[in-house]
Write a structure and sequence with these properties.
Helices cover 34% and strands 21% of the residues. By secondary structure, it is α/β, with parallel strands linked by helices. It has a six-stranded parallel beta sheet with strand order 2-1-3-4-5-6, with helices on both faces. It has a six-stranded parallel beta sheet with strand order 7-10-11-12-13-14. Helix 7 packs parallel to helix 8 and helix 11 packs parallel to helix 12. The N and C termini lie far apart (55 Å).
Length: 449
C-alpha cells in the first residue's frame, strides 16, 4: 500500500493533551500525502489515540478497539488498525497478544514517528508490531497540527509529562517526567494559531503552573501569559491544570493584569483533608489551599474558579468526606468535577489499605455534585441582566436560542455553555450579549447589536 492518498481515520480519546497529539499525527499524515477521513467505513487505516488514566478511560478505549477489530473482520482484513497513546504505552505488550486484530501498538513516545511506523507496516517490512519507547516526545511549533476547519478556539500544550508523583497517578509512567517547551517556541505556535483565525488559546499541560522548572533560566508561567497576551488576533487566553501548590501571586497578577487573559483558573485541589492530601502526595495542605483561593479571589476581579476532586481515596472516612463537603459548601466553586478513586496498578496508592466500596464512592460523588448544582445555580442566577462577551461556536438545535457558545467563565467540554438568540451571528465571532436566564450550569443570552 502506497501512502499517497491512503485514507486515514483518527479517533482521539481522553484529555485535550491527547487531542493535541492526535492533531500532530494528523498533520504529519497530511504532509505525507494521506487523506484524512471522518469515518472508519471509508478508511484504509484507523488510528485510535487512547487514554489510560483511570479505569473508565481504559474501558472506553478497549471497547473502541474491539468494535474496530470486529469491523476489520467484516472487511476481511482490508483495514489496518493502529492503537496509539497512553493505553498502548501502558499495556501495549499485553494487548498485542490479546487482540491480534490490531496491527500496530504505538506508545506516547512515537507520535513524531507515525509515518515511519505506518510505512513499515504497510510495506510489509513487518506484519504486526508493538513499538513502546521512552515517553519523551515533546511537540514544537514545527508540527503542523490539523484543527477543525471551523475552530475559533484551541488548546496550546506548553509542556508534557509530570514530575509531581501523586500517589494515585500513572501519568509519570506513561507520559514521562515534566518537559517544558521553550517560551519562544510556544509564542511562535501561538502566532501561527492567530494567523489561522484562532481567537481563544487554552493553556494546557499536566501541571501548567510547574512550567519552566526544567529549562535554563527557569521561565515562569506568569511571564509566558504576559507574552502571549501581546500577540495580535488572540482575544482570550485561558489557564487550565494549575496545581494549588504551584499557583503563585505572580501568575495571579498576570491574569488580573490583562483583559485578554480570562479571569478563570482551573485549580484541581483533589481533596481538602490533610491526611488524605499527604497520602496523595499533593505537597500542600488545607490551610495553604484555602489561602491560595482567598488570594486569587482578592487579586482577580470576577474570578471563575473550577476544581476537580477525588472521592473514595483509601482512608477517606466519613468524617474526612464530610470535611471535603463542608469545604465545597464554604468555598462555592463556580465549576466542579468529581472523579471516583481508581486503584491503578504500579502506583503507591494501590498499596494502601482501607478500601472504599464502589457504591459508597458513587454515593459520595452524587452528594457533592447535587450540592454543587445548587451552588453553581445560585451563582449563575446572579449574572442575569449582566453583559458578557460570548464566543459563538456552533448552531444549536433550539429555535428560541439558535446558537451556542461560551463566555469567559466557561471552558469547553468541562463547563456549561451559553445559548444565544440573535440574527446575523457567525460561528467563530465574539459577540456582546445580555444574560436573560440561567440554570444550574448554562446561561441563556440575547445578542446586543
Amino acid at each position: 500500500m502506497k501512502l499517497y492518498k491512503t485514507k486515514v481515520y483518527i479517533i482521539s480519546l481522553g484529555c485535550p493533551k491527547n487531542l493535541i497529539d492526535s492533531e500532530v499525527m494528523a498533520g504529519l499524515l497530511s504532509q505525507a500525502g494521506m487523506e484524512l477521513v471522518n469515518s472508519s467505513a471509508s478508511a484504509d487505516i484507523v488510528i485510535i489515540n487512547t487514554c489510560a488514566f483511570i479505569n473508565p478511560a481504559k474501558e472506553e478505549a478497549i471497547e473502541a478497539i474491539l468494535q474496530l477489530a470486529a469491523e476489520k473482520k467484516e472487511r476481511k482484513n482490508r483495514l489496518h488498525l493502529i492503537v496509539a497513546g497512553c493505553l498502548a504505552q501502558r499495556y501495549g505488550k499485553e494487548l498485542f497478544a490479546a487482540i491480534p486484530e490490531v496491527d500496530l501498538f504505538m506508545g506516547t513516545g512515537e507520535v513524531a514517528n507515525v509515518i515511519r511506523n505506518i510505512r513499515r507496516l504497510t510495506e510489509r517490512k513487518q506484519q504486526r508490531a508493538c513499538i513502546i519507547t521512552k515517553p519523551d516526545f515533546l511537540m514544537t511549533s514545527r508540527h503542523a497540527r490539523v484543527l477543525s476547519c471551523s475552530a475559533a478556539s484551541t488548546y496550546l500544550k506548553i509542556s508534557d509529562g509530570c514530575s509531581n508523583r501523586c500517589t494515585y497517578c500513572v501519568i509519570p509512567t506513561i507520559r514521562g517526567k515534566a518537559r517544558s517547551r521553550p517560551p519562544a517556541d510556544i509564542l511562535r505556535e501561538a502566532e501561527l494559531l492567530a494567523k489561522r483565525g484562532i481567537k481563544e488559546i487554552i493553556i494546557t499541560g499536566q501541571d501548567t503552573t510547574a512550567y519552566g522548572r526544567d529549562l535554563p533560566r527557569r521561565p515562569r508561567i506568569g511571564n509566558l501569559l504576559n507574552d502571549l497576551a501581546m500577540i495580535g488576533g488572540i482575544k482570550w487566553i485561558r489557564l487550565l491544570y494549575a496545581h494549588p501548590a504551584h499557583l503563585t501571586k505572580e501568575t495571579m497578577r498576570a491574569i488580573a493584569g490583562s483583559d485578554k487573559i480570562c479571569p478563570y483558573i482551573d485549580l484541581p485541589v483533589q481533596h481538602i483533608d490533610d491526611t488524605i492530601l499527604k497520602a496523595m502526595n499533593r505537597r500542600t495542605t488545607a490551610a495553604e489551599i484555602k489561602k491560595t483561593i482567598a488570594l486569587a479571589r482578592e487579586m482577580i476581579p470576577d474570578l471563575a474558579l473550577r476544581t476537580s476532586l477525588i472521592v473514595g481515596f483509601p482512608g477517606e472516612t466519613q468524617k474526612r468526606f464530610d470535611r471535603l463537603l463542608d469545604f465545597i459548601i464554604e468555598t462555592r466553586f463556580d465549576h466542579l468535577g468529581v472523579f471516583l478513586y481508581s486503584c491503578e496498578e504500579g502506583t503507591k496508592a494501590a498499596l494502601l489499605k482501607s478500601r472504599i466500596a464502589e457504591a459508597e464512592k458513587e454515593h459520595r460523588r452524587d452528594v457533592i455534585m447535587n450540592e454543587q448544582a445548587s451552588i453553581s445555580g445560585r451563582i449563575n442566577q446572579g449574572f442575569i441582566g449582566g453583559l458578557e462577551e460570548v464566543l459563538i461556536e456552533r448552531k444549536s438545535e433550539r429555535s428560541d436560542f439558535p446558537y451556542t457558545g461560551r463566555c469567559r467563565r466557561q471552558a469547553p467540554e468541562i463547563d456549561g455553555i451559553t445559548y444565544v438568540q440573535g440574527k446575523k451571528i457567525i460561528p467563530g465571532e465574539i459577540v456582546r450579549c445580555r444574560i436573560i436566564a440561567a440554570d444550574d450550569y448554562d446561561f441563556f443570552a440575547r445578542k446586543i447589536d
